[in-house]
Amino acid sequence: MYDVIVIGSGPGGYVAAIRCAQLGLKTAIVEKYPTLGGTCLNVGCIPSKALLDSSEHYHNAAHTFKTHGINLSNLKVDLKQMITRKDDVVKQNTDGIQYLMKKNKIDVHQGIGSFVDKTTVKVTKDDGSSSDIQAKNIIIATGSKPSSLPFIKLDKDRVITSTEALNLKEIPKHLVVIGGGVIGLELGSVYARMGAKVSVIEFMDSLIPTMDRTMGKELQKSLKKIGFEFYLKHKVTAVESKGKEVTVKAEDPKGETIEVKGDYVLVSIGRKPYTVGLNAEAAGVKITERGQVEVNDHLQTNVPNIYAIGDVIKGAMLAHKAEEEGIFVAETILGQKPHINYNLIPGVVYTWPEVAAVGFTEEQLKEKGIKYKTGKFPFMASGRARASMDTDGLVKVLADAGTDEILGVHMIGPRTADMIAEAVVAMEYRASAEDISRMSHAHPTYTEAFKEACLAATDNRALHI
Fold this sequence. Notes:
Elements: E1 2-7, H1 11-22, E2 27-31, H2 38-43, H3 45-63, H4 79-103, E3 107-110, E4 112-117, E5 120-124, E6 130-140, E7 144-146, E8 159-160, H5 162-165, E9 174-178, H6 182-192, E10 197-202, H7 213-224, E11 228-232, E12 235-242, E13 245-251, E14 257-262, E15 264-267, E16 271-273, E17 306-308, H8 319-333, E18 347-349, E19 354-359, H9 362-368, E20 372-378, H10 383-388, E21 394-400, E22 406-413, H11 416-428, H12 433-437, H13 448-457
Parallel strand pairs: 1-2, 1-6, 2-3, 6-17, 8-15, 9-10, 9-15, 10-11
Antiparallel strand pairs: 4-5, 5-6, 7-16, 12-13, 13-14, 18-19, 19-22, 20-21, 21-22
């Protein structure tokens, strides 16, 4: 018998397994696919960032190298090589997880994991054979799958999800993206940089609607420059595929029907928890109407020895959120008292400029009736950003009007995905805007923009605007 069985090997699952093993627990992990790493490493975070990086190199070569004094001729995209490099990056990462399992003496069982009872998991292989394994504790980490709409037929050829978008054989002439959230904008960026026209149809009145509205507005301005067009407040009503043309019908804000025609449609309206084949009812585990596994503050299900983490439970569907929960559960099983501050888990959009945020949005502070002050600093005023020709965007700091404690930080600009970590550290230690404004930041760096935004929030003392 194992101490812990983890079902699912995505960032939450494999990190939970490693932490359990570090704590001396005999651990097994069950994964239905041949490679470890889940959606994130195989068809999500890692491959999308590989393609984003490749496409950004091409875009810069085509549009900014000349200004830098670098002249090229006969520039073209080798999409097949881009995909090959992406696949190699994925393999390196999944091989790395396999190595970590061996290093930590974690048994890997390949097959679909399903409950027999609250301590027994059946592992069913591709050939139909199965075996049972048992554990004192079980962690559900089965992740999520792309959502769709009932009337959309995903043929995975012309009407695709993010998975197929990572393996196209050609650059779309016109890619229609349904959904103006993170995944659609990232993958739309990949192909827009290589010359595709990209049309985004979004039901809400803003891009990345879960983030601070300023970020959505700024991102929309930047993406327009590389060939995006936007249909906000539009409700998709039909998707029709005929030959090499796909037509998307949508209702505009007046209720009138419009049509957008393209050669590919990317359905990117979010993701849904994945519990297919889990047979949770055999263990008595409750699943909500939304398909989520129900957990308490200790991430325990209604069955005390069974836990759930990551995309399959409530909260933001983020790999790093799942990792924190994996560690949290491992330490909870050992009787430790770990802690997660969900408000301080950052969110990132890996477009260019990047968008990164942590803490409350301005809209949330207004809704809660919390009095706050705002400090902003544009990258246009940053010496480092001017030097690298990355002047789009800004840093926005929200601080408590009375105490000056930083309540939210929202960035759109160069390398903000990395810069947001400073804001997370500051907020974990409940720093004030003045604290950051009095810390030395190397010059010239992008991070000076964070300091300047904090100065702006502190009696409007920004130095360079």
